[in-house]
Design goal:
- A two-stranded antiparallel sheet has the order 1-2.
- It contains 37 helices and 2 strands.
- Helix 34 packs parallel to helix 36 (676-688).
- The chain has helices at residues 4-7, 41-45, 92-99, 109-117, 125-130, 139-151, 154-165, 174-186, 190-202, 209-221, 225-237, 248-260, 266-277, 282-294, 301-313, 317-328, 336-348, 352-362, 373-386, 389-401, 408-420, 424-436, 443-455, 459-471, 478-489, 494-506, 513-526, 529-541, 548-560, 564-576, 583-595, 599-611, 622-634, 641-653, 657-669, 676-688, 692-704; strands at 63-70, 75-82.
- 62% of the residues lie in helices and 2% in strands.
- It is an all-alpha fold.
C-alpha cells in the first residue's frame, strides 16, 4: 500500500491520468443525484459510523465523562473517555489469537490515544498500536483518528494514519479522510490536504460534500480564496470543459465534482465567504453571499458573523457597524461573537463610550450574550490605548471574578498597557502570572516586558529579557529588535543601538522604517550629526522607504543639532516623494527656525501651512502654538493676518473662544485689517462656545467694515 508521505505531494498528470476517465457511462451533468434506492441504501448508511451510531452498541461511540477528585489538594479533574470496540467485540478468529498472547492489551480508544501522545513522533508508535487488541476491529479506526485529530497533533495523526493503511482489514472511508483534511487545514498545509483528496480516488473512496467543504476551508485558511472560489464554481456548474490554460490538478477536481454531482450547501458557502473575508476581500464575500441567497440558501448567524469579520479584516469598520444595524432588522439574533466584532470596530473608530455601553449591556443579567475572554480583552485594549491603566486592570480582575480563564492574548493586553507607561514592576508581575497560570509566554509577552524595562530607563535589564527569549527558544522578530534599539537609544547609548541593528541583520531579519526612525531619534538625543547622515544613507542603500514619521524624526534630529540646511533638504525630499506633511512637520520646522532666530523662514512655513489647510496644533497642542507666537513677537517679528488667523483657529479648536476673541482684538489694535478667513474663524469659535449673540455681532462687524459675507 502507498504511504501517506508519498500521497500528500502535489499530483502530476501521470499520477492521475485515469482520473478523467472515471465515468462508466455518459452522465447528465445538469441533474443532481436522486434519492438512494433500496439497493444502494446499505452502502450509503455504512459510510460513517461516527455520525450514525449503531443501535446495538451505542456505548462504543459515546464520550463518557470521568471525574477524578484529589481531596488533599482540593482539586478535581474531568476527562472524557471513549471505549470503542474491545476484545469481546472483535471477530472470534482474532479473539482466539490474542487470548494466548500476554503482550496484546485490551485498551480503550482513549487509552491508546493517551499512550501515543506521550511519545515523540520518532518513538515506536507502531509498537503501541500493534499491541492494541482493538486494531482487529476496523470500526475503531475512525474513532482513533477522530480522537487524535481533536488533540491537534498532526504528526501523531499522520503516523497513526500511515500505520492504519498498512493493516489488512483497513477500508478507506471518507469520514477518516475528511478529518485528516480538516486537520491539515488547521495547520495551513494546503498541498497535503489536496494530496489526501486525490489519495481518496486511488483507494476508491468517494468524497462527499463535507470533503469539499473541508478542502475549501483549507484554501481559505491559507488565503488562497481564488482556489476556493474555483472549487465552488465547479460544484455549481457541475460540468467539465477542457481548457488548455487550466492545470491538471484543477481538471481532476472538476472531474470529481461532475462524477459525484455534489451540490453546495450552506456550509460550503460559509467556508467560501470565510475564505474571501479572511483575506480582506469583503467585496467578493458580499457577492458570494448574494449568490447564496439567489440559489435559495438563506444566510444564518454564522454567515452574518463571517461578513462582519470580513469588514473588520478589511478595515471597513463603519461598513461593519452599518451591516450590524441591517442585521438587527432580521429575525437572526446576534451572539457573543457578533457583539465582539461590533466592540472591536467601535474601538477602532474611537467611539469608546459606545463600546463600553455594549460591554455593559452584555454583562446585564437578562442578556442572552454574555461577555467572554475576547470581549474583556477588547475593552482592556481600549483602555490601554487611552492610557487608563487602572480601568484596564479592573476589567482584567472582572474577567477573573466572573470565572473566565484569561488566555495569552488577555495577559498580553494587560502587559502591554503597563509597558506603554514604563511600569516595569507591574509588567513583571503580569509576566510571572502568565507562567503561573500554565501558559507559555509568546513573543508578544517578551517584547512587551522588554519594552517596559526600556521605557523605565533600564536598558541592561531589557537586554536580559532579550537573552531570556533566546534561551526559551522564542525567536525575536523585527518588533523585538526595534524595542531593544529604543531601550538603548532613549537612554543615550547610541552605539549599543547600532550594534543591535547589525545583530538583527546577521540573524537574517531586515530592518524596517521603524528601525530607522528609532535610530534617528537616538541621534537627536545624543546630538550625533554624522550618525544622522549615515543612518539615512543606510536606509537608502537597503531600499527602505521613509514614511511621514521617519521624515519628521529626521527633520527634528537635524534641527536639534542646528543643521537647518540639512533639515530643509530632508523636507524638500519629503515633498518630492509625495509624502504629505502634517502639523508635526511644520511645528518642528517652525520651532527649529525660532530657536535659530530664523523668523522669516518660520513665517513662510506658517503661510505654507495655511495654504495646505493644516491646523497649527495637533491634538490640542495649544502650548506649542502659544510659545512660537510669543517668541516671534519677542524677536521683533510682527505677526501678520495669517499668523493671527492661525492662532484664532488654534483656540477655536481647543474650545477657548475667550482667547480667540483676545487675539482678534490684538490684531485690530496692531492696525492689521481682519479678512473674511479671520472673521470666519472667530465666528466658528463663538459657535463652538455656544455664543450666538456674539456670532450676530461679528456678522454686523463684517458688514460695517465692508468684509464680504459668503455662505
Amino acid at each position: 500500500m502507498t504511504l501517506l508521505t508519498h500521497q500528500i505531494q502535489s499530483p502530476t498528470p501521470s499520477n492521475h491520468s485515469s482520473f478523467l476517465h472515471f465515468h462508466p457511462k455518459p452522465t447528465n451533468f445538469l441533474t443532481f443525484p436522486v434519492k438512494p434506492t433500496s439497493r444502494n441504501l446499505r452502502k450509503i448508511k455504512t459510510c460513517s459510523i461516527i455520525s450514525q451510531k449503531s443501535t446495538k452498541n451505542p456505548e462504543k461511540w459515546e464520550r463518557k465523562k470521568q471525574v477524578h477528585v484529589d481531596y488533599d489538594k482540593g482539586e478535581h479533574h474531568v476527562t472524557e473517555h471513549v471505549s470503542g470496540f474491545r476484545k469481546e467485540d472483535i471477530p472470534s478468529r482474532y479473539r482466539i489469537k490474542v487470548q494466548a498472547d500476554r503482550f496484546q492489551k485490551d485498551w480503550s480508544v482513549t487509552q491508546v490515544v493517551q499512550k501515543i501522545m506521550v511519545l515523540d513522533v520518532r518513538d515506536d508508535i507502531d509498537g503501541v498500536l500493534n499491541h492494541w487488541v482493538g486494531r482487529f476491529s476496523k470500526k475503531n479506526y475512525a474513532l482513533l483518528i477522530k480522537e487524535l485529530t481533536q488533540s491537534g497533533s498532526i504528526e501523531h495523526s499522520i503516523h497513526a494514519f500511515r500505520w492504519m493503511k498498512n493493516q489488512k482489514n483497513y477500508t478507506a472511508r471518507n469520514d477518516i479522510y475528511n478529518m485528516m483534511i480538516r486537520l491539515h487545514a488547521r495547520h495551513n498545509r494546503v498541498d497535503q490536504a489536496r494530496g489526501l483528496f486525490f489519495e481518496m480516488q486511488e483507494w476508491k473512496c468517494k468524497p462527499n460534500a463535507e470533503t469539499f467543504n473541508a478542502l475549501i476551508n483549507a484554501h481559505g485558511r491559507a488565503g488562497q480564496w481564488r482556489w476556493a472560489m474555483n472549487i465552488m464554481e465547479d460544484m455549481l456548474r457541475a460540468s467539465v470543459q477542457e481548457d488548455e490554460e487550466e492545470d491538471n490538478l484543477q481538471l481532476c477536481i472538476k472531474a470529481f465534482l461532475v462524477f459525484y454531482q455534489i451540490p453546495p450547501s450552506r456550509t460550503t458557502y460559509n467556508n467560501l465567504i470565510n475564505a474571501c473575508g479572511s483575506s480582506g476581500n469583503w467585496r467578493e464575500a458580499l457577492k458570494i453571499c448574494k449568490h447564496m441567497t439567489d440559489n435559495g440558501i438563506g444566510p444564518d448567524l454564522v454567515t452574518h458573523n463571517i461578513i462582519l469579520c470580513a469588514y473588520k479584516t478589511g478595515a471597513e469598520y463603519s461598513k461593519a457597524l452599518s451591516y450590524f444595524e441591517l442585521m438587527e432588522g432580521t429575525k437572526i439574533r446576534p451572539n457573543t461573537t457578533t457583539l465582539n466584532i461590533r466592540i472591536y470596530c467601535l474601538v477602532k473608530l474611537g467611539r469608546y463610550e459606545e463600546a463600553v455601553d455594549v460591554f455593559n449591556s452584555m454583562r446585564h443579567k437578562k442578556s442572552e450574550c454574555r461577555p467572554d475572554v475576547v470581549t474583556h480583552t477588547s475593552i482592556m485594549h481600549m483602555y490601554s490605548v487611552r492610557g487608563e491603566i487602572e480601568n484596564c486592570k479592573a476589567v482584567f480582575d472582572t474577567m477573573l471574578a466572573e470565572g473566565l480563564t484569561p488566555n495569552i492574548v488577555a495577559y498580553n493586553a494587560l502587559l502591554g498597557a503597563y509597558a506603554s507607561l514604563g511600569m516595569n514592576e507591574e509588567a513583571q508581575k503580569v509576566f510571572n502570572g502568565i507562567k503561573q497560570s500554565g501558559l507559555r509566554p509568546d513573543i508578544v509577552s517578551y517584547t512587551s516586558l522588554l519594552n517596559a524595562y526600556g521605557r523605565s530607563q533600564q536598558p541592561d535589564k531589557a537586554k536580559e529579557i532579550f537573552e531570556l527569549m533566546n534561551q526559551q527558544k522564542c525567536k525575536p522578530n523585527v518588533i523585538t529588535y526595534n524595542a531593544l534599539m529604543d531601550a538603548y537609544g532613549s537612554n543615550g547609548r547610541l552605539a549599543k543601538a547600532v550594534e543591535v541593528l547589525h545583530e538583527m541583520e546577521r540573524e537574517g531579519i531586515q530592518p524596517n522604517v521603524v528601525s530607522i526612525s528609532t535610530l534617528l531619534a537616538s541621534c537627536s538625543r545624543c546630538s550625533e550629526n554624522v550618525k544622522i547622515d549615515s543612518i539615512l544613507l543606510a536606509a537608502d542603500q537597503r531600499g527602505i522607504q521613509l514614511n511621514l514619521v521617519a521624515y519628521n524624526t529626521a527633520i527634528g534630529s537635524y534641527m536639534n543639532v542646528g543643521e537647518y540646511d540639512k533639515a530643509l533638504g530632508v523636507y524638500k525630499t519629503m515633498r518630492e516623494k509625495k509624502v504629505k506633511p502634517d502639523s508635526v512637520t511644520y511645528n518642528v520646522l517652525i520651532t527649529g527656525c525660532c530657536k535659530m532666530s530664523k523668523y522669516d523662514h518660520a513665517i513662510e512655513f506658517l503661510k505654507e501651512m495655511t495654504m495646505l489647510k493644516i491646523p497649527i496644533s495637533k491634538e490640542g497642542r495649544v502650548a506649542d502654538a502659544e510659545s512660537t507666537f510669543a517668541r516671534m513677537k519677542e524677536a521683533g517679528c510682527q505677526p501678520d493676518v495669517i499668523t493671527y488667523t492661525k492662532m484664532i483657529h488654534t483656540y477655536s479648536e481647543a474650545g477657548n473662544w475667550e482667547k480667540a476673541c483676545e487675539i482678534f482684538e490684538e490684531m485690530e489694535a496692531n492696525n492689521i485689517q481682519p479678512d473674511i478667513i479671520a472673521c470666519s474663524a472667530l465666528m466658528r469659535a463663538f459657535n463652538n462656545g455656544s455664543q450666538p449673540a456674539k456670532v450676530l455681532n461679528m456678522l454686523t462687524y463684517m458688514r460695517t467694515h465692508d468684509i464680504p459675507v459668503t455662505d
